[in-house]
Amino acid sequence: xxxxxxEKTITIKINGKxxxxxxxxxxxxxxxxxxxxxxxxxxxxxxxxxxxxxTAAGKEADDSFDWILPEETEDVDIKEYxxxxxxxxxxxxxxxxxxxxxxxxxxQGILTSIFLAVFFAVLLGTSFGFIMLKLVxxxxxxxxxxxxxxxxxAAANQQTPSAAAxxxxxxxxxxxxxxxxxxxxxxxxxxxxxQKGVYSQSIKMGEQTFLFLGVSGSLEEAKEIGADxxxxxxxxxxxxxxxxxxxxEGVNAEEKKxxxxxxxLFQSLSEGAASASLGSSITPETAEKIExxxxxxxxxxxxxxxxxxxxxxxxxxxNASKQIDTYQQSGDAAAAGKIQEHLLGFLAAYQSxxxxxxx
Length: 359
Prior knowledge:
The model is unreliable at about 1-5, about 25-35, about 60-65, about 70-75 and about 150-155 (pLDDT under 50). The chain is built from 10 helices and 8 strands. The protein has helices at about 35-60, 95-105, 110-145, 155, 185-195, 220-230, 255-275, 285-300, 310-330, 335-355; strands at about 10-15, 15-20, 160-165, 170-180, 200-205, 210-215, 235-245, 245-250. It is rod-shaped, with a radius of gyration of 70 Å.
């Protein structure tokens, strides 16, 4: 047999007591009941159930539901929270950051302008100060630098001019090509002789200009040299000529030595030049004199000879001596002509020194 279905019971707890509610269902009598009547009956029963609950709640004033609510506390402090502002970016170092802060505090920009002006003035002044300090240290270092050591003392390199030097009179024998009242005429004859391969030197003495073609240690040798030149179609004659000596001013010790030895050396070289021009060998006595006197000239300090005329005197004597050596070694006639050329150059420089008085 089928067991009857148990009736459903709803239990509600009111004021700590269980109040059961049983839903009673009448047996369905037949299948002819209308479904609509069944639903209405259920709704009516539910309405009556909830109405009974409300009535029971009204009758029993002491009965109440157990409502659990959080108790209010008066002493609880409610903390106030503020919305945090976003973190500011780290300020950058530099003049732009400082200027920005000043512009924020001072809208007109007066303080910013003053600060920047002062800052740049200090910076500029400091920079100039360091530059000047560096220059001062550089100058001091240059002053304290050890000067280069000279091979010779300063006193030895600088010669003070002496009072005077006595130039001796030079008496020599020359082959003369003419005497002219102006230098232009002498130069024309000089150019004509050069075209014939003969060297000549014009020297002004007083108001006249003399043209010389050679020198000799004696009048006889001068005449022989002149005779050879005449055979080449050049009109010449031999004569004795004196270059009057005098005192010259404003020369130093080295220049004075050269001025004093030059006439004697010239005489020795003239003797050797005459022998070379005539194709003869230079005597040992003449060669010895030349060697001894040229050694003295070579020992002079060339850098101390500042007078232009004395510089020319020294150069002509040294070159004549070299040509003498060349002639002695080879017997070359061209070397003999070079000896005469340098000795005539010496006479021109010596005459210029006499006329200038050493100035």
